[in-house]
Amino acid sequence: DGAMAWVICLLATLANLLTCGCIITFGILFPVLLDEFGYGKAITAWVGSLALALSIGLGPVSAKLINRFGARAVTICASVVSAVGLFVTSQVNSLPLMYLTYSIPCGLGTCGVFLSSFDIIAKYFSKRLSLATAIAHSGSVVSLLVMSPLIEASLSSLGWRYTFMVLGGMSLAIPIFGAAMLEPRTNFQIMTYGDGDSWTDLLRNRKLLACCATGFVMDFGGTIPLLHLGRYSQDVGIPSHRSALLYVGFGVGSTVGRVLIGRLCDLPCVSPLYMYCLSTMVAGVSTLLVPQLDSFAGLIGYFTVNGFANGGYATAVFMIVYQITIPSMRIQALGLYFFVVSLAFASGSPFGGKLSNNDNTNKIT
């Protein structure tokens, strides 16, 4: 919890900001790619959904690489993979090729950087672990504040191809942050996969399985608004440049939610489980009200509230996983949770796209 720990927290936050921003802002690119290639909403949505799914679904693989080579090496290599994929994507002439050039490399790269931040933060923090985790994790949504206007401006002035090149160039800054993520000098025992019973023990942990199940349900529905409300806002008459501001509202709300709930979860009198339940309830109720909203003020209000709830839920669930598993199995537990939730990311948005194809107003969706 010393000064060096907070430096590491800052580096992890910046790394997450850049790498996650390349895929979490796909909703801004979505309408452009939809018009450019002429595929249906469901097929186009799969490009972003697969990247999101792999960004957490490869958690078990990333965890094993981190245990073998360390968070520093994985962060550097993963970010380079993501950057190469973005550069190649800028040259493709077919949407299906983006599954190979964008979805897989960016998903793999993001997962490596993202999970590495959890590993390194857990080694540097104890008393303020929840807050530090929330801050580092908030980099993934602060990217909405920083990169949404940037991507919108780049699309308007340069086009989508050069926009992917800009994203690739930004990703090449991540190895610099990763190089500074030195392992702490401590007796901390690195978690290994050598114990063949570790995964068996996790699958017998009923609390962890319940956490995974609720996470799947939450994110199956939660990914749909994040991707499809960009098009929905344009359908109700909101200009595209203002639609990008909706994601800024989500980023502000999510950042505040993560930090506030993270600080609260460090208090002995606050239960992460109660914070989790409250956050998911707010997210669900706010989304049910979306069909009644057709103005910019209403939609940005929704995005901000939903972002706050999403951030609170994300922070609380990490603390729950930490509480219900022993320290030596936390990375494996997070890997399992990420894998289950990735199935929701992979299927939620395309399901919403399929509904949207039969629902021109998107209200049912």
TrEMBL record:
GO terms for cellular component: plasma membrane. It is a multi-pass membrane protein. One of its GO terms (molecular function) is transmembrane transporter activity. Pfam families: MFS_1. PROSITE patterns: MFS (PS50850). Keywords: Membrane, Transmembrane, Transmembrane helix. Its main location: membrane. It is found in: Membrane. The keyword Transmembrane applies. The chain crosses the membrane at residues 7-30, 42-61, 73-93, 99-122, 129-150, 162-182, 208-229, 244-261, 273-293, 299-322, 334-353. Residues 5-365 form the Major facilitator superfamily (MFS) profile domain. This is Major facilitator superfamily (MFS) profile domain-containing protein.
